[in-house]
Amino acid sequence: MTAEHMPTFLKSIVVEAPVDTVFGFHEREDALRLLSPPFPPVRVIRKTYGIEPGSRVELRIGPFRWTALHTVYVKNRLFADEQIEGPFAKWVHRHEFEPVDDATRLTDRIEYRLPGGVWVNRLFGWAVQLGLHQMFRHRHQMTKLYNEKGLHENLRA
Asked: Which of 110, 120, 117 is nearest to 82 (CA)?
């Protein structure tokens, strides 16, 4: 399975807040905690500062240990991270921000591959898609809540 044939998860939402506000929210030290759904439980083990290239975050997600390396950063436009340790054979997550009038279109684009080859991906890809859909429905709801209601201004990092 080549990179061109990796499964892709794509979910977008329009947040009624300027792009610098929405991007800035994702730069917060506590953004991952604020965006993580209650299940599966996510625990930050170690994190280097920021979302710029070279920054790392080490997590425990349910039974899995997960380490992500931030690889791309364009202020108010996008940032990306790649799994360097975890349950997937490949995982690249792009967080894309696009101004839409006075609002922001946030798109999460994830290319992934399960370990075990093409048949494992064909048999279990639906479960990954379902899990990602549920996770990002929650994350996008929280993004709208914190950015549209101005709650991010009242939170302490």
From this structure: 110
